[in-house]
Amino acid sequence: MIVGAGFAGYNCARALSRQAKGAAEIVLLNPLDYFLYVPLLPEVAAAILEPRRVAVSLTGTLPGVRLVLGHAHGIDLDARRVTYTDPEEREGSLTYDRLVLTVGSVNKLLPIPGVTEHAHGFRGMPEALYLRDHMVRQVELAGASDDPAVRAARTTFVVVGAGYTGTEVAAHGVLFTDSLARQNVGLRDGPRPRWLLLDVADRLLPGLDERLSHTADRVLRGRGVDVRTGTSVKEATSEGVLLDDGEFIASRSLIWCVGVRPDPLVEGLGLPTDKGRLCVDAYLTVPGHPEVFACGDAAAVPDLTRPGEVTPMTAQHAQRQGKVAAHNVAASCGRGKPRAYEHRDLGFMVDLGGVQAAANPLHVPLSGPLAGAVTRGYHLMAMPGNRVRVAADWLLDAVLPRQGVHLGLVSPWSVPLDTASPEVARLPRGSDGST
Ligand SMILES: Cc1cc2nc3c(=O)[nH]c(=O)nc-3n(C[C@H](O)[C@H](O)[C@H](O)COP(=O)(O)OP(=O)(O)OC[C@H]3O[C@@H](n4cnc5c(N)ncnc54)[C@H](O)[C@@H]3O)c2cc1C
Questions:
Q1: Entry pTM
Q2: Is 56 in the pocket of ligand 1 (CB under 6 A)?
Q3: How does DSSP classify residue 98?
Q4: Which residue's alpha carbon is at the smallest distance from atom 5 of ligand 1?
Q5: 120: which of 81, 126, 134, 275 is 20 to 30 A away, CA to CA?
Q6: Domain 2-31+70-107+261-332 - what CATH class?
Q7: pLDDT at 97 over 80
């Protein structure tokens, strides 16, 4: 049984079903019926890709795997039982012989006044859809207002956290809101939408190759993004954001990309953790529980290429760890020998929108259109499905203006920052048809 169908869980399920060829029952428990290709979410928010393009059907691409829709909330390691709530609020439970925990991560919170109430994260589809609509709405409300202060506040967007998520959101966001403003007669004479990207670190993309930081910094500043390093938020209100240097930025948009923390399900297990991630050995097994495996963002996997460290929370590692977990599950059932997880980073790609990207495939630094082409090519190859649809959207975006409409289906209260399940929009109790 695999809990969580993200990069780690999806690849584990696929590798196991190929290896088992029907000799084992493989159950995948996930709240939704799709694998979310998270790295392209900023393109959904910027109206380049339609949301279903980054949602790959689980049943359609994982023959031989039984999908159970549900959100796990309890694991009884002695009884080998997982309890869950299904999308219609019904309780269920499943027993297992082998368990692979791949529940990923959720938005990281910081104890800053007002942030939980006024900021929105960027970890799941509902948040990306909310942000897309929100940007369109703010630009339209600004265009309809006669008050210059309101116009300025509504066209000011603050992104906190300049890791790859925040950097990509700001890079795509500024291009999107510029195109919306150009289409809006009320904003033809200004103001031009303003984007701020803040980080407490001294450079963008902290933790990645400095050459990527320089490229991202140059591209974003060139687009007019106000990049503020060494800066954080002191307080957030409904009217704007107070920075730690005392400046108040009037804005209706605070996008919280300060990072992620492991899914809270892990904490509830009562097993050793490292910064919230479940401790496992190099074979991805939970010590003392040879039948339980964990990997991806939710697990602290020893990084054999950097002794003493754990592997970073990236799709690159999660995907490969999922395959190794599948191999080791099979080995634990008598097929093959267990293998330790070892992978040296192959570089990183940060999509900056337009034709720009900052990339270092195999640690060769690239920028400009070449990096953009390599990044898009990589994403197409890495996606387990929907490739033609994604490529078609990219082609359409190259020749047509962006669609500046908001459907208003995701409201702010349904995408709270503090949630254990950013993958599902919160609904008022009973409004989904449940009793
Ligand atoms: C906007 C953005 C851009 C990114 N870009 C990149 C990039 O370019 N390159 C890169 O390497 N990494 C990138 N990352 C990081 C990467 O997406 C993660 O490291 C990766 O998704 C981790 O994979 P995972 O399988 O551990 O978790 P996830 O992919 O998050 O999957 C977790 C799965 O578990 C499910 N789940 C959660 N809780 C439960 C539960 N209680 N019960 C059942 N199921 C549950 C979730 O619904 C989800 O399907 C990006 C992240 C974000 C947010």
A1: 0.94
A2: no
A3: S
A4: 39
A5: 275
A6: alpha beta
A7: yes
